[in-house]
Amino acid sequence: MQKITNICCIGAGYVGGPTMSVIANKCPHIQVTVVDINQDRIDQWNTEDLDQLPIYEPGLKEIVAESRGKNLFFSNEVDRAIDEAQMIFISVNTPTKTYGKGKGQAADLKFVELCARNIAKVSKTDKIVVEKSTLPVRTAQAIQNILDNTGDGVHFEILSNPEFLAEGTAIDDLIHADRVLIGGNETPTGQDAKDALSAIYENWLPKERILQTNIWSSELSKLVANAFLAQRVSSINSISALCEKTDANIQEISRAIGFDSRIGPKFLNASVGFGGSCFQKDILNLVYIARSFGLQEVADYWEQVIIMNDYQKSRFVEHIISTLYNTISGKKIVIYGWAFKKDTNDTRESAAIHVANALMEEHAEVIVYDPKVTESRIYQDLDYLNTRSPEENRRLLTVAKDPIAITTDAHAIAILTEWDEFKGYDWEKIYSQMLKPAFVFDGRRILKTDEMKAIGFNYYKIGQS
Ligand code: UDX
Ligand code: UDX
Fold first, then answer.
1. Most buried residue among 80, 192, 287, 424 by CB atoms closer than 10 A?
2. What number does the ligand 2 atom closest to the CA of 349 have?
3. Residue 182 in 3-state DSSP?
């Protein structure tokens, strides 16, 4: 089996950055170089001030501090890093297509293809190429074809090694992974490559947690894992709507069903809807694949998970509007939280974007506070929707740095991310400076109903009548 001493990763994003940092940290004998076409991103990864890393992830800066400059490097010399590496991870983004065939559902693979072509062009020695990005099933075949037909007699072995880390807990998820999945060709060279990658993970994970499969199973498992997780959230969210019409309490239901060991307690928190770069994209991918094989019922079944998620977001907004006497025009509404979940500065597909947009459609005056998301990111998210002009977005929504001061004369507060700091706020003070009646719409169920009511708030918690 080949012993790997030099790794390159293309894509210094939420997946490539943390994953490679942990590999470097756990494998001091391997040189790890993370490259990216985005020079700013690489500069940020190389900053002296570790609070300026491009990604906020608990535990990340400590690991980067330990390994950077020793065996962990961030660089924009893509070709050189590819040439020197024995193993190359592809960790570039694969957004949902916004044009052409499969628009709105299929994954856009142009970045992955560019990477493959570049690897083929630059490589002078045999390489193991690892797909880390989540890709539609059978992408490995496409990468293999490109490499085999454009490479210079060099042997390329493709592996699929999907990522299961969740943002906000990425470092812990990597260090204590439930499992690592490695898919590869069922040939002697394929086996050798799978073992070489297994050996890397065995530096810190027990061997029995490293699963080897064929390449297609590995690719599809990633989509299915995310689809099942998202399905749990949509399932509990569908029941939250029913709870609001009855005296049942969603938290009690989650607890009651979660004790059933066949169901388990995780991913049963009702919320304003799931977000993140993966769930929606991966399910859409699954739907697209099923449909392209003529499996209409299979496609419809999984699509419903997304329809339920959209319903949860719009239901939340409609509740705000109807509670505020059916008009929010000109009313000041504070949004706490823009990230798609706590402990990350990632906002992709965040429910907050859709909630804010809908409130702005009704001409509310929206003020956003998030502890980690920048103002420019928030405006980019809104501008990307193309609902109205960038100027209008800036007129209708402002971004604030002081979460307490902004509640003065507000009609309502909507909590859209479960940041811990929101729980510790001086809610009595907030109440005193808001207009009365003062409303709080808790889309994350983080505050205590009794306490909020005792202060005087009109308090709504998703999943409770
Ligand atoms: C990840 C996964 O890789 C993707 O499959 C998953 O489904 C979503 O999350 P992520 O790391 O979160 O992607 O994406 P992002 O933070 O956008 O990072 C991707 C990086 O790749 C960017 O920094 C981009 O500049 C870089 N890139 C993109 C290249 O270096 N080369 C390219 O050709 C394209
Ligand atoms: C997910 C997968 O968990 C991970 O394995 C995969 O590699 C990438 O996609 P991520 O998107 O980072 O990770 O976050 P995750 O923790 O799964 O949360 C996704 C969304 O679901 C968030 O918006 C979160 O707030 C929401 N959620 C999660 C709920 O609303 N309720 C829950 O009980 C759990």
1. 287
2. 23
3. strand
Q: Looking at this protein, which amino acid is placed at residue 43?
A: D
461 Cβ contact list (under 8 Å, min separation 6): 442, 445, 447, 449
Q: What would the pLDDT profile of 379-412 be if each residue is shown by its tens digit? A: 999 999 999 999 999 999 999 999 999 999 999 9
Which residues are known to be catalytic?
278
Q: Residue 278: CB within 6 Å of ligand 1? A: yes
Ligand number nearest CA of 93 is 1
Distance 434 CA to ligand 2 centre (A): 33
Round to whole Å and give the CA distance between 444 and 339: 12
Report residue 155 as tokens: 């042997």
Whether 362 and 321 have beta carbons less than 8 Å apart is answered as: yes
The minimum-distance atom of ligand 1 relative to the CA of 281 is: 7
Could you tell me the CA-to-CA distances from 414 to 187, 238, 348, 366, 433 in Å, in that order? 55, 20, 19, 10, 16
Secondary structure (H, E, C), 324-392: CCCCCCCCEEEEECCCCCCCCCCCCCCHHHHHHHHHHHCCCEEEEECCCCCHHHHHHHHHHHCCCCHHH
Closest CA to ligand 2's atom 6: 164
- The percentage of the chain sitting over the pLDDT mark of 70, rounded to a whole number, equals 100
**Cβ–ligand 2 contact at 268 (below 6 Å):** yes
